[in-house]
Write a structure and sequence with these properties.
The protein is 36% helix and 14% strand. The chain is α/β, with parallel strands linked by helices and 951 residues long. The chain has an 18-stranded mixed beta sheet, with helices on both faces. It is globular and about 85 Å long.
Length: 951
């Protein structure tokens, strides 16, 4: 079935119009009256779509316009559900080919009779749809209002208050302000310097405007002229340039007069011999910056330009010189968050009643260090709320309730980012409300769900997964989602949504009935299209819902023991029960009754058998059954001709043949190759559309290794000659594998990831060095000790970008000097080791994670200088400090050493430090009391969690 776009703003209208156009082609045999009615529907719905597109950018529509938009969106979903059922029936029209047995001919004849009945049923349903469309159209025509009433009321930008706020009322701004002042004031001694640019980037509400204003006020007197301008989403460049000209040169008589080029020339002419400070606040796109940059003459007078933006690409565009700085603004610390929160409500933390302490902690956690959110929620609570109201506030969204002007400010600030998104990205962003608070969302899982829901659309044949991933990264780029664990390619495999942004998205999603979230306190009274179950819902409440129109169902957590009856979910496209251990096989016995299902995720569950009815899901595109208890894959799975992505447990055995039927398969893993039949391995080579393949190389308990290995290698070579881009191999090496790769497995260009779970590095060292595209190496346990020569060998891999070490033990210290010329990410989880980085080591390394066992370090009498300062490209470092057996003072000395190394690093990386095993630290005198259970005395220093520093 062809892919069409579904949108939060336009519902299924775009998708519906595309499908109606498809039905009208000659391939589908329709009665004449039905064809005429569908043409009428298409014309009428196109007019409705035009209305929805206009409404999509109206931020505050009037009540009538909002009702009409909601009605049209709901109508589009209902009609699409019916059209999808029509298309399924018509796709089952019997073949016109003659021949076959009497039984086959009889069955075809019966199907033709049934098809005639189907045609008349479709005709009747289309008539009903036509009546619905007319009713909706006529109802709102009777009450049509002037479209000018749809425009939002003009509000004063709340950021204006931040610009003129008294510095004494601010919290947490002094540290970042002083860092920037110090950096801007630092004279690099270059007489030809054309000044500096610093671009502050971060999500809305983090205090970017407040910060740059404080720098502006503190440094302004040191410059001959200065200007501060704010940019809107739709900037009036003439007005902005005129403002800059007037601020730097109030005597200019031509400000605001003339064309853009004339004003740019006037600004450049005035600035060419001046030392100036200019701040451009809230830039939304690169083109706006490029226009402004033309006006800001780059002289050699140590001038300063500061910009703020919510978009990383814009920040990078502003900072094109090596001397420039992209400064990522951080949320407030826990201490500063408390100070701001309690100052506004009680005057100080000490005046907070004891019975509100716990609620305060939870509320602050929701704010996540966002100053705008803290101000908004504290202003609501400052009006004398009761204990019950505090408890409700800690559990519910802060949007759509209350009358606080600060609450309106948060909504306004986040609305700017939301309405700046194109329609398809708004839908993808709202879809995140289906995931729990603070949930780590996998990029691959999210993109696959977007695709199955029709939220990712392209007309030029572009790969949908690649397009969906660009959507994901654009939301990261715009600071609307938080990246988690950035990979060697600079992209995050996971994300989280800031609680305050999530609250806003829930508010918008509820407003447009895009997603439904249930609670114990309320039930939706509207149609349920997308639903999440978090495990706390009672079964009767779910059973009373009308789920006949449900398109997406997600379940989360170990507390989910119940699923709605699948028989009632005929419109379901997405079913995701990842990590729901409470579900059993009986919950999926009717899985074959979901004719529209496109995405099924049952990974990390205890389901022990893949239902044989899985073969009835003929529109299924993604099946994720990884990390389950299956031992066998049913033969019916090989009938899924539309399956694009298949992920299964690495111990599952496929049927001996049939895998070659899955011609549409593009992603496939994790196949334990030597468990499969020779026929399977041969047919694997027929999957010529495969782009990503993950296999396990484990010859243990395989008697005909040589024969299967020959067939497997032949199939892999065929796949590489077609479309295979990424091959990941997990090795469990035994004695018989000591010469692997040297004569059997060739160095395929598609091999990009290698995982070692057993054996020794030397077994495949020579083979790995011939892998010209190997990007990631993962070294696990059961490999014995890792020594200096092993690291030196790995360092010579020509294309290695990411290295992760999980061995049982390393023999240290390990000195890293040469090698690793392209490595960008190094994660080490080795016990009892120390890495020493020499000058010039790992020149491209951006992310580093290491462990330090202080007791071992102390007993070896080694210092704390690990050479972190020599990693010239480092952006981020995480250090886990194991504190057992040493004093708190020794731990603090180690932490101080890491801070000093990072401060000395030219790239100013972010440092995260975590203390581990703090309960086993020694007292200051080195003595310890013998505890009955552990043998150590527990001590509790002030803070034993994670610390984050940015230098």
């Amino acid at each position: 079935m062809e892919r069409f776009l579904v949108s939060a703003s336009t519902g299924a209208m775009t998708s519906l119009l595309g499908k109606l156009g498809t039905i009208l082609i000659d391939e589908y045999k329709l009665l004449k009256d039905v064809r005429d009615d569908i043409k009428f529907l298409k014309d009428e719905l196109e007019a409705m779509q035009a209305f929805l597109l206009v409404m999509a950018d109206v931020e505050e529509p009037d009540h009538q316009a909002k009702l009409r938009a909601n009605a049209i969106r709901d109508l589009s979903y209902d009609i699409e559900d019916k059209i999808d059922r029509f298309m399924i029936l018509m796709d089952h029209e019997p073949s016109s080919k003659s021949g076959g047995s009497f039984k086959e001919i009889f069955n075809k004849s019966m199907k033709k009779i049934k098809n005639i009945k189907t045609q008349h049923k479709i005709a009747k349903d289309v008539k009903d749809i036509k009546i619905q469309v007319k009713e909706v159209s006529e109802r709102y025509t009777r009450y049509k209002k002037d479209e000018s009433s749809w425009a939002r009321n003009v509000k004063v930008d709340p950021r204006l208050h931040a610009i003129y706020k008294d510095a004494s009322q601010l919290v947490g701004v002094n540290g970042p302000r002083d860092d920037l002042v110090k950096w801007l004031s630092n004279d690099d001694g270059d007489s030809t310097s054309q000044g500096k640019v610093v671009s502050i980037v971060g999500s809305g509400g983090l205090g970017k405007t407040t910060l740059v204003r404080q720098v502006y006020d503190k440094l302004g007197a040191n410059y001959e002229c200065r200007a501060f301008v704010s940019i809107s989403r739709s900037p009036d460049m003439m007005k902005i340039l005129s403002s800059i000209l007037y601020q730097v040169n109030p005597d200019c008589t031509h400000a605001g007069v003339g064309d853009t080029q004339l004003i740019i020339e006037q600004i450049r002419d005035f600035l060419k011999d001046k030392r100036y400070l200019i701040i451009i606040d809230d830039i939304w796109d690169i083109q706006t910056w490029q226009t402004l940059d033309c006006a800001l003459y780059k002289n050699n007078r140590d001038s300063v330009i500061m910009t703020t933006t919510r978009i990383h690409d814009v920040a990078k565009s502003c900072c094109s010189s090596e001397k420039d700085l992209v400064y990522k603004i951080k949320p407030l610390s826990v201490a500063d968050s408390k100070k701001l929160f309690f100052k506004r409500i009680f005057g100080c933390e000490g005046k907070c009643p004891a019975n509100l302490k716990e609620a305060s902690e939870d509320i602050l956690k929701r704010c996540g260090g966002l100053p705008l959110a803290i101000n908004a929620i504290s202003s609501l609570l400052a009006t004398g709320k009761t204990n019950e109201e505090w408890d409700r506030m800690r559990c519910s969204s802060g949007f759509g309730s209350g009358t606080s002007s600060d609450n309106d400010a948060v909504t306004y600030i986040l609305s700017l980012s939301y309405f700046d998104l194109p329609l398809h990205l708004r839908s993808c962003l709202l879809y995140l409300t289906l995931f729990p608070e603070d949930y780590e969302i996998g990029r691959q899982r999210l993109v696959h769900r977007w695709i199955s829901e029709g939220l990712v659309h392209c007309k030029d044949g572009r790969d949908l997964v690649e397009l969906g991933e660009t959507y994901f990264h654009e939301l990261v780029n715009r600071c609307l989602i938080q990246p988690v664990d950035i990979g060697h390619d600079g992209k995050a495999p996971h994300c989280r949504v800031h609680d305050t942004i999530l609250d806003f998205l829930i508010y918008k999603s509820t407003e447009e009935n895009f997603c439904t979230l249930l609670s114990n306190y309320s039930l939706p009274d509207s149609r349920v299209r997308r639903l999440s179950l978090m495990g706390y819902e009672d079964q009767p409440s779910i059973e009373h819902l009308d789920l006949s129109r449900l398109r997406s169902l997600g379940c989360f957590g170990f507390r989910v023991f119940y699923l709605p009856s699948l028989v009632k979910l005929s419109s379901l496209r997405v079913l995701d029960v990842w990590n729901c251990r409470g579900l059993s096989d009986c919950n999926f016995k009717d899985i074959g009754r979901l004719p529209q299902l496109r995405y099924l995720n049952i990974s990390f569950t205890d389901i022990s058998e893949l239902p044989r009815q899985i073969g009835d899901l003929e529109y299924l595109e993604t099946l994720d059954a990884s990390a389950t208890q299956f031992s066998e894959i049913p033969e019916s799975l090989t009938r899924l001709k539309r399956l694009v992505r298949l992920f299964i447990p690495d111990e599952a055995k496929f049927p001996d043949d049939g895998i070659g039927n899955l011609k549409s398969l593009q992603e496939f893993g994790d196949v334990n190759t030597f468990m499969q039949s020779p026929k399977f391995l041969e047919e694997l080579g027929e999957l010529t559309n495969l782009r990503k393949l993950s296999i396990t190389w484990n010859t243990y308990k395989c008697d005909d290794v040589g024969y299967k290995e020959k067939i497997l290698v032949s199939s892999l070579c065929k796949l590489e000659a077609c479309n295979l881009r990424t091959l990941r191999i997990s090795f469990y090496l035994g004695e018989r594998d000591c010469f692997i790769g040297q004569s059997n497995l060739p160095a395929l260009n598609s091999i990009r990831e290698v995982y070692l779970f057993g054996g020794k590095l030397c077994q495949i060292a020579q083979w790995m060095h011939s892998l010209v595209n190997l990007e990631k190496l993962w070294i696990g346990t059961n490999l014995g000790r890792i020594q200096q020569q092993d690291i030196d060998m790995v360092g010579c891999l020509p294309s290695l970008l990411e290295l992760e070490l999980y061995p049982d033990r390393c023999v240290g210290p390990i000195v890293i000097g040469g090698g690793f010329q392209r490595l960008q990410k190094f994660m080490s989880y080795c016990d009892f080791t120390v890495f020493m980085f020499e000058v010039g080591a790992m020149p491209c390394l951006k992310r580093l994670r290491i462990q330090v066992h202080l007791d071992t370090l102390k007993s070896a009498r080694r210092g704390f200088d690990f050479g972190i300062q020599h990693l010239s490209s480092l952006d981020w470092i995480s250090v886990s400090i194991y504190c057992s057996g040493v004093s708190a003072a020794y731990v603090e000395a180690a932490e101080s050493a890491f801070k000093n190394m990072v401060e000395a690093n030219p790239n100013r990386p972010t440092l995260e430090m975590q203390r581990q095993c703090t309960e086993y630290m020694l007292e200051e005198d080195g003595q310890k009391e013998v505890d009955q259970e552990t043998g150590f005395k527990r001590i509790t220093p002030g803070f034993l969690g994670r610390s984050i520093y940015q230098f």
